[in-house]
Amino acid sequence: MLQLIADGLVVGSVVSLGAVGLTMTYAILRFANFAHGELLAWGAYLALSMLGILLAIGGAERMVPLSPFSFGWELVVAALVACVGAAAIALVLDKLLFSRLRHGAAITLVIASFGAALALRNLLQFLWGPIPTYYSRELQIAIPLVPRDVLGGMRITPDQLLVLALAAATVVGLHLFLTRTTLGKAMRATALNPQLARVAGVDVDGVIRATWIIGAVLATIAGVLAGLTVQLRPQLGFDLLLPLFAAAILGGIGNVYGAVLGGLIVGLAESLAVPLIGAEYRAAVSFLVIIAILLVRPQGLLGERT
Amino acid sequence: MSALAVEGLIAGYEPDLPIVREASLAVAPGEILAVLGPNGAGKSTLIKAIAGLVRVYGGRVLLEGEEITNAPAHTMVRRGLAFVPQTENVFANLSIAENLDLAAAIVKAPRARVGALYDLFPDLARQRRLAAGRLSGGQRQMLAVARALVVAPRVLMLDEPSAGLSPKLVGQVFEKLLEIRASGVTIVLVEQNVKAALAIADRGVILVEGKERVMGEAQSLMDDPAVAELYLGRSGRHAGEGA
C-alpha cells in the first residue's frame, strides 16, 4: 500500500510538471494544446542527444554517476540545453502555426495542435527510432524508508527521491515567480483579462512567449524525469497526454496550483488502481478521472465556476 | 499645443464598417473634456481607438504633438496616456496592492508614487491585501483610476466611470477626478451621465454617428435645450438626469 503511494507520487510529480505547462497555455492562450505532450518527449530526446554529444566530447562511453544517483553531470547539462531546445520548438510552433490562428475560433487552434502533435511525434520517431532507450543503465538500490511489516513497507530509489524533490522545488519556485515577480503578475493579469493587461502596459505578446518558454521548460524537466525513472520511448508524450489533461481538468483548467494537485491525485489514482485492474489498464484511470470531474465538479477542484 | 488631438479619425472593428467617422477633437493641457452622445454614437470606440485597442483606418492621433496612431496599446502608458475601461477594469484575481504594484513595475515607477496614491484613496490603503474581485463597484472604480494614475499619465481617459454606481458614489469618483485634474493631468471623460460629466468638465463634445457635431464650453452645453433635445435624447430640463 505504502509502496503504491510512493510510486504514485513519483508518477504524479512528473504529471504535475507537465500539467502546469498545459494549464498555463490554456490560461493565457485559451486553448487546449494537444501538442504539449510532445514537448515532453522532445525535451527528453533532445537531452538524450545532448548527453551523447557531451559523452563523445569527453571521450567517455557512459556517465560516471553522481552518487547516489544513476546519472552524471552530463545529464544535468544535457537537460538544461534540452530546455532551451524545447522552448525554441514551442516558440517556432507558435510563430508558424498558433499565432496565425489566434484570432479565429478556439477549436481551430485545438485541431491545429492535434496536427502539430502528430507531426512532432512522427518526426521524433523518424529521428531517434522506435526502440525504447535509457539515459543510464546503472542499477540503483532502492532505499527502504518504511519496514516491510508496516503496510507492506516503502522503498524508493535516489532518482525517485530526486523527482519528488525537483517537482516540489519547481512548484515552490513557480509560486514565487507568479506572486513576486512582475512577469508572474503580468501572466496572472493576462490570464484574467488580456485587453486590460494591454491597457495596463503589459506586453501581452511577450507574456505569451514567456508562457511557451516556461511550459516547454517544465515539459522538458518532466520528460527527462520520466526518462530517468521509467524509460525513453517515442510515445512518451502521447502516453502522458491523457494524465496531463486529467490533472489539468481535475485541478481546474487554467489553475497552476490545481494542475499540481491534479497531477499528484492522478498519479496516486493510477498507482493505487494497478492491484485492482492491472498495470495494462492504468491509463484508463485518467480517463475515468476526467469523466468523473466533468460530471461532479466541471470547474475542477480549485477552479472557479464561470 | 494640445495635450491630445484627434484629426479626421476613422476607426472600428471592420474596415468597411467604421464606427468612428472622421472625428476630430483637441484637448488642452490640464483640461477636462467630456465626450457625450447617444448610445451607439461611437464614444467608447473613439477612446479605445486612441488607446490602441481598436484599429484606426484613417486620420491620426497626436499625444502632445507626437503621432501615436495605431501604436500598440501596451506602449501607451509609457508615452503618458492612461485608459480606464468601463467594465472589467481591475484584475480581480490580484490584490489591490498587486494591481498597483504591477502597474508601477511596468513603468518602473518609484515606490513613493504608490504610497501617494494610497493617500489619495485611503479606502484602498486600508484593504490593500484584499482581492480586487471582492471590492464594491465604487471601490473597483477607485482602484481602476488609481491603477491608471500609478503610471503618472499626462492624459487620463475614462470610459463611463459612473456606470453602475449610485449617485453618491458617482459624486465621490468625480470629486477624485477634480483632484487629479488639479495635479495637472488632462482628462478625457466619456459619459452617459451628462449632468455629472458637464458639472466637472471644462468643455464638452457631442458625438453623433461617429462624428463630433457640437463642441463648446460645458456650461453653455448644459444651458442649451436644443443641444440636449437633439443630441442627448432628452429635453433640456432633464438633460442632467444621467443614463
TrEMBL record, chain A:
Domain of life: Bacteria
Gene Ontology MF term list: L-isoleucine transmembrane transporter activity; L-leucine transmembrane transporter activity; L-phenylalanine transmembrane transporter activity; L-valine transmembrane transporter activity
Subcellular localization, as worded in the UniProt entry: Cell membrane
UniProt entry tagged with the keyword Transmembrane: yes
Pfam families, alphabetized: BPD_transp_2
Membrane topology: Multi-pass membrane protein
TM segment ranges: 6-27, 39-59, 71-93, 105-128, 161-178, 212-232, 244-269, 281-300
Keywords on record: Amino-acid transport, Cell inner membrane, Cell membrane, Membrane, Transmembrane, Transmembrane helix, Transport
GO biological process annotation, one example: L-isoleucine import across plasma membrane
UniProt xrefs under InterPro entries: ABC_transp_permease, BCAA_transport_permease
Family membership: Belongs to the binding-protein-dependent transport system permease family. LivHM subfamily.
Protein name according to UniProt: Branched-chain amino acid ABC transporter permease
Species the sequence originates in: Salinarimonas ramus
From TrEMBL, chain B:
Xref: CDD domains: ABC_TM1139_LivF_branched
Keyword Transport: yes
Molecular function terms from GO: ATP binding; ATP hydrolysis activity; branched-chain amino acid transmembrane transporter activity
Pfam families for this protein: ABC_tran
Residue ranges of every copy of the ABC transporter domain listed in the record: 4-234
SUPFAM superfamilies: P-loop containing nucleoside triphosphate hydrolases
Chain coiled-coil ranges: none
Any single biological process term in GO: L-amino acid transport
UniProt cross-references to SMART domains, sorted A to Z: AAA
The keyword Nucleotide-binding belongs to this UniProt entry's keyword annotation: yes
UniProt KW keywords: Amino-acid transport, ATP-binding, Nucleotide-binding, Transport
Similarity comment text for this entry: Belongs to the ABC transporter superfamily.
Family matches, as PANTHER family: BRANCHED-CHAIN AMINO ACID TRANSPORT ATP-BINDING PROTEIN LIVF-RELATED (PTHR43820:SF7), HIGH-AFFINITY BRANCHED-CHAIN AMINO ACID TRANSPORT ATP-BINDING PROTEIN LIVF (PTHR43820)
UniProt-recorded name of the protein: ABC transporter ATP-binding protein
Lineage: Bacteria, Pseudomonadati, Pseudomonadota, Alphaproteobacteria, Hyphomicrobiales
